[in-house]
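Researcher: Re-running this chain for the archive, since the previous output was lost when a drive failed. Same request as before.
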Amino acid sequence: MNASLRRLDSFPLVAGWLALIALPSACAKSPSAMTTPPATMDASADAAPAAPPCPADEDLISDFTMDNGVHPVDGRQGGWYTYGDHNGFGLLDPMEGMGVKPDLTVGNPTCSKEGSLHVTAKNFTDWGAATGVDFKLPVTLDGGGTGKGTYDASKYRGISFWAKAAAPIKFASVKFTDPYTEIPSVLGDAMSCLSKPMDPKNCSPYLVKFGYGYTGSNLDAIMADYPSYKDTKIDTTWKQFVVLFADTKQDRYNLGQKSPGDHLDVAHLEGMAIQVNADFTAGATMPKANDFEIWVDDVGFVK
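Model: Regenerated structure tokens:
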């Protein structure tokens, strides 16, 4: 496999708080106050996971009927954003760091109807581009500075969302971050990960890769690590996608600092992202752009 793919296929979330810059921060306890143990679950079978088609109000994350915000229940608060590699040629709509307005003309007909998150990305040839959301506002640390807020999602098994695309999307993944795998973190500098590939403290989020687009040994790796998702594809029709926390792993080609027990710390979940990687087809001397246009709707937690 191309060495660049191994290094960049799971580039961590770095822009989440930008979408919330105008919102007030809360105060955080010191890192030692994080005493709730990470919730763990049994691994799922190879069959694709399932969930109710439409999230209940108490489980809803976002339905985009009015804005890009997180549905304010159970203390959740945040907004969706976009980000991409900085190769100098990428075009992202909505732009990174700017407010994300929903597309009120298109939506999932099964659930909330009109209104969806609409993202277009072109010419990203380093690692790719993504759209993501944080579940809590940034917090102010005891020693100064800020970190991503955390949400206790241990009562849930995972998340679901509906999506469609202008054309089938290759190399898609869904990733989650916790304080051990993303910066800035409420753990503080001493315990935080580093954006430093190949380092034991490298930031390596827990994720699930969708199999569509991968071939050869890369597809073999998907089948070994994410068997329930080997046939998963975001295409031109509205479909529901269910991702279970128990199915997430750190990317075997981007290993780094692990969360306790080598499981996603769902008791201190920061956020999630849908990422589309550049095309690192085996044998290519340089990664190729993997342009995409996606609509996302009716995102919710799965009990």
